[in-house]
Structure prediction request, 466 residues.
Amino acid sequence: MKHFFISVFVAAVLSSAGQPSKNEWTSLFNGKDLSGFKQLNGKAKYRVENGEIIGTTVFGEPNSFLATEKTYGDFVLELDLKMFANMNSGVQFRSQSGNASTEMSNSKIPDRVFGYQAEVDPSSRAWSGGIYDEARRGWLYTLENNPAAKAAFKPTDWNRYRIECIGNHIRTWINGVPCAYVIDDMTPVGFIALQVHAIQNKTDEGKEIHWKNIRIKTTNLKPSPSNGIFVVNLLNNTISEEEKRLGYSLLWDGATGNGWRSANGAGFPAKGWSISNGELILHNEPPTRSMRVGDIVTEKEYSAFDLQFEFKITDTANSGVKYFVQEYPEKRAVIGLEYQILDDAKHPDAKAGAAGNRTMASLYDLIPAAPGLDSKASRRDRIPVGQWNRARIVVYPDGKVEHWLNGWKMVEYQRGGPIFLALVARSKFATWPQFGTQAKGRILLQDHGDKVSFRSIKIKELSNQP
Prediction:
């Protein structure tokens, strides 16, 4: 009997040899050489020492990437990295190379790398773990959306990165801290790559970034539990289960006019506004732009909320999204605080008002939009007319208000505070009673005589409750 059990045990071991276990990870780096990788885009230097891949900056070279020869779809990737505090880098995933036909592509680089990137940013901005779309759409998830994660990255020390891609859900962690959560379907499969970022100064040549313990898991994947961080959902007119848990719902269903009506009127407009391919479109444009069909407003009123929406404008267009809207049928007026939507480059309103307070994402005629944390990288200047922008208006129960554009916080103010009231007093709204200070109001999509499109309009009502 003893020999029988030994035989069974040996047979079981032999039969399982070479078979991956349910929890098995695969190393992408053998610790000895760069087998399984190829270099793309730029000519920064990569070498192997002491079981680490070391990337070194080279002046005059564009972003360089050490990419896996194999591509990956769904996976969990983990790796350790360490770098100089004043460098920048990233980990590409679900990425590709070629001619990326986007506003950020560089046609002079035939093997231009583009795709998702987990940011490595040890600067004071502290966006490590954010998700950037290299050479394509720019920032998808900045850590302004999740400030608590800014402290996760340890400059000049080893950091453990985790990237989880399961279906359309893309999530990142640094040292166990959840950083970013994006839902997107633009690129389902691609290579993984280690970036050495281009440098602008010769004095930065020779700086290094180190990687080790690079491993991936592609089978028996299970999503990590909910961690409650903000979600950027780029799938049109959808609410994910995670967003539902966070309290969001669609303010526009993507298919009908339900929940909306004409301002100072009843029912959804019979003409002028149309719904097509999941877009809510105002069709005013030359030569009919002077024949406005009118604004539309929500049937429900709101007090404190987190409103998200996408919009697309046409050449020289002017529009806006108003909130705390009050209707005055007898004056044929609809008045409210306005998130400005404008072609800053061509519409004359951009130079009107004061100090740029009528430019894109401004609080119209009151507070100008800031250029962003880094004016050179501000997404205001990178998404041209005819492409979709992501906007967000957050009104907190304590009266604080924020305007966001493509992941950048552009405006912050205190509704009803002394500065706000002083600005109103010298604006075009000075004669309107209680302008912008009402307890609640409707949300409005503006007809300013130009063609504009909206989609993915969603809202979360906020309260003082935890």
Summary: The first strand starts at residue 26 and ends at 27.
